[in-house]
Amino acid sequence: MVSAFAAAGGVAEEVLTARFARLVLSGRWFTLFACLMILSASGATYAFGIYSRALRSSLGYDQRAVATLAFFKDLGSNVGVPAGLLSEVAPPWAVLAAGAAMNLAGYLMVYLSLAGRVARPPLWLMCAYVCAGANSQAFAGTGALVTCVRNFPETRGAVLGLLKGYVGLSSAVLAQLYLALYGGGDARSLVLLIAWLPAAVSVAFLATVRVLPRQATRGGGGGSGDVFFCLLYISVALAAYILVMIVVQRQASFSRGAYAASAAGLLVLLFLPLAVVVRQEYRIKKESEESLRSSAPTTVTVVEKTAAASPISESEPPPPALPASTGTRPPSSSCSRLGAFLRHAFSPPAHGEDYSIPQALVSVDMLILFAAIACGAGGTLTAIDNMGQIGQSLGYPPETVDAFVSLISVWNYAGRVAAGYASESLLARYGFPRPLALTVVLAASCAGHLLIATGAPGGALYAASVLVGFCFGAQWPLLYAVISELFGLKRYATLYNLGAVASPVGAYVLNVRVAGRLYDAEAARQHGGALPAAAGGGDKTCVGVECFRSSFLIITAATAAGALVSLVLVWRTREFYRGDIYARFRDAAVAGEELPCTGGSVAEQQPSQVEIESTEVNEMPIGVLS
């Protein structure tokens, strides 16, 4: 026992050093932890249902105006093409900094408007505030997701599922912190928290989020599966803790101190992944030291590359001299440039290679994905945005409707994590193609839409909220993983944001043009064509199953069509998914090479201008190598 305590003390002394701290902060595992923290505070858009009532009461908006704000919220959170284009030319910290500035500016103006600190803005200006604040989520997602996928390309399914899972839990995390800091009861304080907290978290981790070259990702991929499962278990514990707190807080009255105690437990679970990161970095360090001790005696000779060095042997003839430049270029027409561009765009590489943005835009595979997600995510997002009115029309009390919203948040997380981890495991073990997993998710969401359309009594709406939340969350890691696998990682920052645009497009068609119009028509029919004012002021109310029956039957048909369309992608990519799609990433990790698709500057990809050659002559001290 004495030796055990001594060993533990030695480990503690070794871990609690500045050198080991620098080692942890410079590793890709701490980058993953930093991204988890950023995304756990980035889901302010999912809290819109909480403060939308304050928008209506404080600013005098009717239901149509609130629905318009909800659409611009969805538009801002999903249209991340500007974030993707910025990521193509700037490092991740610049993307995160831009997102933090947009979050602070957008939501701070919303708060000032609600608090009466500024003049009541017109609707179009409030839409701009909400859209700018929501668009910060796309910047945070781009900076975090793209960085982690490039750092862990061989386990991207688990990475995407884990990160998107924390996004799904973020609104519940913000709600718990809001209760602890402000005591609840005032939605304006929630908007203030949403304005400063996500921006502060992003700024705190700016320096640690970066793409690491493959030769700098110490430890390769060994043992990473165990680490991801540890992180999965922690996230499951976090989700279970939040769910228990939601239920308990609705059943009993909490004091300010009780809310603070529950938030303290939440923070412990939020920061628990840091212990996993430290343990993994310590294990990598010990394995590296053991491998150096057990390696054969070698000497390291440094050979500098000079301009005089030439790879051409003496027996080979010199290359032919190029003709002298005349200082003029041959004439080129705009037609020839356009023709070259079109030939490039319509000549895509094979699946898995790096596509350019024009090649991906005109790709049949991208069009199929766009159509499938527009139908699938558009339908589930319509159900989520209207869950309050659905419960109200079916006669559920407000407390039960709030429980539906909480269930959607938790099952949204469950869908993201389950889809990421399960699809990765099925792909690795059985070669189960990820597009087929997307088809299964779309088909399952049809069942949730049918439950809403039929308005079945009992716990049907509970089951519908579970199915809708799970399927909505499951679509995102599958979409992002398929895009990275089919189109490569070189332009991934822009391409995955292009795929996300399908969600607001589908939501506009199915929510605004279908569900909203049919709801208003049924409400007008029930009230004899008049537009009565509800108790909330100015919005039409509809009661009964007929309010959403027709719209969700249409949504069910659209989602089924999206599932059938996704089967076309399954057929087109069947040969690609039969092979080992991650082989080149593992080979590059073993060889210590940097793939061009991982991005980064030339300085990052080639950190040294020297070659190291080994010969079995003398031994170099281990301290020099380490």
The total strand number stands at 2
Arrangement of strands in the largest sheet: 1-2
Give the low-pLDDT segments.
1-6, 305-316, 322-328, 532-538, 596-626
Helix and strand sequence: HHHHHHHHHHHHHEHHHHHHHHHHHHHEH
Q: Tell me, what's the shape?
A: globular
Indicate the mean pLDDT.
81
Q: Tell me the number of helical segments per DSSP (H or I, 4 or more residues long).
A: 27
Estimate what percentage of residues fall within beta strands.
under 5%
Helix content: over 70%
Distance between the termini: 32 Å
Largest sheet, described in full?
Answer: 2 strands, antiparallel
Pairing-aware structural class of the strands and helices? Answer: mainly alpha
Give the C-alpha Rg: 27 Å
Write the layout of secondary structure elements.
Blueprint: H1 2-15, H2 18-25, H3 28-39, H4 48-59, H5 63-78, H6 81-89, H7 92-114, H8 123-151, H9 156-182, H10 187-204, H11 224-251, H12 256-271, H13 273-294, E1 299-304, H14 334-345, H15 357-361, H16 364-385, H17 387-393, H18 398-430, H19 434-454, H20 460-487, H21 492-500, H22 502-526, H23 546-572, H24 574-578, H25 583-591, H26 602-605, E2 610-615, H27 622-625
Antiparallel strand pairs: 1-2
